[in-house]
Amino acid sequence: MNSSRAILYERFVFKHLGERPTRQLFGSNIHVLGNASRVKINSVEFIKSSDGIKDCPMDGFPEVAFVGRSNVGKSSLVNLLMERKSLALVSKKPGKTQLINHFLVNKRWYLVDLPGYGFASAPKTLCVKWNEFTKDYFLKRKTLVMVVQLIDSSIPVQQIDIDCATWLKQHNIPSTLAFTKCDRKKKKRKTGGKHPVDNVVEFLQQMRLVTTQTYPWILTSCVTGQGRDELMMHIEEFRNYWHS
Ligand code: GDP
């Protein structure tokens, strides 16, 4: 992906490239147009699982990819965004963990469910395979508009999340950080537990050490619904902009 798209993304997310009035989304640093409204989901269809980009749909619809560590809350967030109770994420089915899964949303764009990274008990070869597989997708998929990287805000900062975010940035791939589980209560002090917001602040501080660019981020919770409408507006606007 060339650097111009990443630069455009930053300008778009923070300044909106024009004179039109914008507003900052609640619980995030992202701006949308003042008249942006709630995105309704009329249809979501599972299209296919692919084991490489050669196999992915070729109809040219723009796509937004979701990625994160296993157990980050990806299925829950996707269901929340899609207003579905249980849109089965194929990536969770045994034997399908290494596939790229395409869902067609409102017959206009693809939500792409990518395999989770950082399996605690996985052999090293599996992690290496994840790297090759998803990196290939990120670098070569022409219709990829943006990536939503999910970060679990209920646990301390994980180096693997920092590494993934840094890698996306270094390769000029437009990406937004969606912090999940922001409703989780502070754990007992003796266990070293922190409030989700403290973990978010720490994550963003650590990101600042590796990049001077500002990162779009948004807080979400599947329990309270926080961030659902905001993240969808952000996705919808950028997808529209890129497509027009
Ligand atoms: P995935 O493996 O990334 O698809 O994660 P899941 O969506 O299956 O969620 C993993 C666990 O985190 C489950 O026990 C969920 O109930 C829980 N979880 C997911 N999202 C949230 C959230 O927003 N708040 C809280 N409190 N728990 C969540």
UniProtKB/TrEMBL annotation:
Statement: the UniProt record of this protein carries the keyword GTP-binding: yes
HAMAP family: GTPase_EngB
Keyword Secreted among UniProt keywords: no
GO biological process terms on file: cell division
GO molecular function list: GTP binding; metal ion binding
Signal peptide: none
The entry's keywords: Cell cycle, Cell division, GTP-binding, Magnesium, Metal-binding, Nucleotide-binding, Septation
Family membership: Belongs to the TRAFAC class TrmE-Era-EngA-EngB-Septin-like GTPase superfamily. EngB GTPase family.
Name listed for the protein in its UniProt record: EngB-type G domain-containing protein
EngB-type G domain sequence ranges: 60-241
Cofactor(s) recorded in Swiss-Prot or TrEMBL: Mg(2+)
Listed PANTHER family: ENGB-TYPE G DOMAIN-CONTAINING PROTEIN, MSS1/TRME-RELATED GTP-BINDING PROTEIN
NCBIfam families: GTPase_YsxC
CDD domains cross-referenced by the UniProt entry: YihA_EngB
Lineage summary: Eukaryota, Viridiplantae, Streptophyta, Embryophyta, Tracheophyta
PROSITE patterns in the cross-refs: G_ENGB (PS51706)
